[in-house]
Amino acid sequence: MNFRWLNAVLWGNSVALSWMWGLGLFFSVQMTFMFGLQGLLLFAVPNALGLMLFGFLTQRVAQTHSGGQESLAIFFDKFSKPFRLILYLYQIVALALTVFALVKYLFVPLNLATGPLFSLYLCLLVFVILVAGCLFGEEFGIQKIKLSHAMLGGLLVACVAAILFGLNPLVPTGLQWSEPFPKLWTGPTLLGYAIPLVIGLLVGPWLDLQHWQRAIQIHREKTSIRASYFFGGSIFFLMLLFHGCLALWVMTEEGQPLAAQPGLDGFMYAHDLVTQYFTKAFKPGSVMPLAYFSFLAICALTTLDSGYVALKWFLEKNVEKSENMLISLIPKQILGSPIPTFLIVGLVTLIGIWAKLELEYFMVFYASFFVGYAALAIARCFVPNSQNPLPQIRMFSMASLSLVIFAFGYLNGQTSLLILGAVLPLVYVIWLVFNADLLRVVTEKAGEVIEAASEIPAIRAITKTATVITGSDVVAPQDGHAFGGHFEDKWFVYSSIASYSDTNSVGNVYFGMYAMFVGKARELFFNKAMPDFDLKTTHFYILTRSFEHKFVREAREFDTITVKIRVSDFNRKFCTLEHQIFGSENELLGKGKQSLLFVSAKDYSLLDIPSEVYTAFMKYL
What we know:
The protein has two domains: 2-112 and 120-359, Amino acid/polyamine transporter I (Up-down Bundle), CATH 1.20.1740; 473-618, Hotdog Thioesterase (Thiol Ester Dehydrase, Chain A, Roll), CATH 3.10.129.10. It is built from 20 helices and eight strands. The chain is 62% helix and 9% strand. The model is unreliable at 437-451 and 453-481 (pLDDT under 50).
């Protein structure tokens, strides 16, 4: 038991350090500059609570799903599938934000990159930061990262202690509740920040790969996720409080924000005021600047190495499972490596520095664009009806709209637009989930009513009369090819009539027959697509690798069964066919997919997709 508590504390320390990225480091200073201690607490409290809630709720997810110590990992594999791109983009923006903030608010004020070679020095500086993150991430995997972070956390405590004893900054008279410099800040009001910060920070961890990987590993080690994230949120809160109070003390000592400079939008920014103070107030060689700069470097490094480990875990897993043809053309060592992603992060950082952007321009994504996806992710963990296919286009459109609204509100200091940009995606997700639930209830109740009504003798007689099809009613199609199916755009369509032999004892079409219907349609599709295929002379066979089908409605004797099938995807080895089955009234009976593989006709060895199949199938993709 003692070991588990110690393990929870170690993981809590790692959680806090990995979450102390550019947002926590420098925006805490800016919030203090804008609104004093109330602004700092407005930022710190929901940030810490967001971590604790993530740990509390993921513990519940792990306990309510089967799989033992792997229950959370199994759940995440299914849960993350529709969110893969958003999870990846979230990680890119988070890492780019961290590197950008460290360079702009630490190294640039130190004048490490000046003169005509500024761009070259800047590129080298960004490269060194990224390499450090890759090196530590490669050296310490998820099993050992809590130990490396424990060592770095010890160094961080030493740095904080040196600053506290050297400056004695946390003097009560130095803490100011409201704005220290009300005339300098002319941007959005505190209310304009309050609601977006609360929403964005509370749901933020749910799209962070680093936290999901940690929660899964913590559960595997039979340690409480809830306790680990409680410790993590508490440590993180203290770190934010320290940095914000240090900024308040510096502003009180100096009487003005040393580094407050107007940005592109005309607002005053002071993210690096503490850096400026330690640069100018101490002589070269003093231990105080070294302690503060080391504090910043440790916080950034523990985010970058965590990002490297999480990306490597996420990319390798998804590349291994992917059957996309284009992905199969690129070596898996490249696609599964975080290094290309880190290069993208470096490029985004350089563009941001050269464009003279501010930290807030990155943060706008977390207050608006990602909010809807994070809220839907939470709903899919706990609300059963939210498991419907993710409406990707609608979600992206809403996220983009909220991003534009929020950005416009920020640049113009419009509080109402800031709130709208943050709340709109949340409201949309609530409506999306509620609408799906209402549709599910109506469908279930309608099915119950129809089933109950069918037992009334009069209605049963009417429906029986209406559905009986006599031999004279069945007319042969005018087009002879219709007997073998036909194409509708990319779909191959084949229809047949269910008969007595297709049903079970209660008159419903037997569940196994749907696979038979699909199988027949598939063979007819092959015959249409590859009319010259001959089993006697072929050098390859087509075999079924897997088959999936989801049953939606039932069919009965003499119902018309229409199967639609098409090529949905293929890579170098495997081809995926998608199918849909419809009834007499064009109602969806079921849908699914199957994966095909190709083997040699001589020895049944696995082959790449034959060129004949590529040629035949490509036009139907």
